[in-house]
Amino acid sequence: MNVPKHDLDMLVVAPHPDDAELGMGGAIAKMLDLGWKVGVLDLTNGEPTPFGDIETRETETKSASQALGITWRENLGLRNRFVEPTLEARGLLANVFRRTRPRWLFAPYWEDAHPDHIAATELIEAARFWAKLTKSDLAGEPYHPQRVFYYYCVHLKHVAQPAFVLDISAEWERKAAAVACYHSQFTQGREHISPSIHERLRDEAAYWGKMIGTRYGEPFNCREPIALTDLSRLL
Questions:
Q1: In this predicted model, what pLDDT tens digit does every residue of 67-111 receive, in sequence order?
Q2: Which of 21, 23, 131, 150 could lock 109 by a disulfide, CB 3.0 to 4.6 Å apart?
């Protein structure tokens, strides 16, 4: 039996720089520590924002990647605030999937108030399907990522009902450090806001940790059944 080669074990696709860190920075750090090949693909540069600019966001993104240990990170070059699941964007993303051949994809949760996030998820799912097509104009060999999991980085006041929660107790400090790298987004001009983004993230992580009997956790969802070979890894 020919087993497809996976260049990346998991590819996290984020609408904007900082979404991957906010939604699953702990999971990224954990899997990198376990020796997994983890990549992050930002769809846009995230600008304009009130206190940021392109150069600042690039610097912040590099610092956040270093904080988590990410060595593979690219930007698809779509336009912030104008993300749409167009055929052109689908082809660009499908080409990345064929080139990196990730075993698993991670996408934003499908319900959100941010139009870019909703469009990004639709785009990721469509590109996953396109990436496996034969007789197409896409580059590389057909490839189909095995699973899509969804992380929570939402602008909607939504009470999540996740499929599973990952223990990130040991990785929480690294996640917090990575998010803190985005000074222009979460600190600058917001010094008077209480609770701070750090406090909110910590409280959310503590809530999910409580749900699974650990200190901190990150929730994830999946549209498809999650396969287990045994129950030995369940907490």
A1: 999 999 999 999 999 999 999 999 999 999 999 999 999 999 999
A2: 150
Closest by CA to 222, choosing from 153, 151, 150, is 150
Which conformational region is residue 69 in: left (phi greater than 0), alpha (psi within -120 to 50 degrees), or beta? left
DSSP 90-102: HHHHHHHHHHH-E
Nearest to 166 by CA among 117, 121, 227, 211: 211
> How many Å from the N-terminal Cα to the C-terminal Cα in the chain?
33
Domains and CATH numbers, the chain: 8-221 (3.40.50.10320)
Burial class (CB in 10 A: 0-12, 13-18, 19+), 9: middle
Residue 59 neighbours by CB under 8 Å, 6+ apart: none
Query: Residue 110, exposed/middle/buried by CB under 10 A (0-12, 13-18, 19+)?
Result: middle
Instruction: Please list, residue by residue across 42-79, b when 16 or more beta carbons sit within 10 angstroms of its beta carbon and e when fewer do.
Output: bbbbbbebeebeeebbeebbeebbebbebeebebbebe
The secondary element (H helix, E strand) that includes residue 56 is helix 54-68
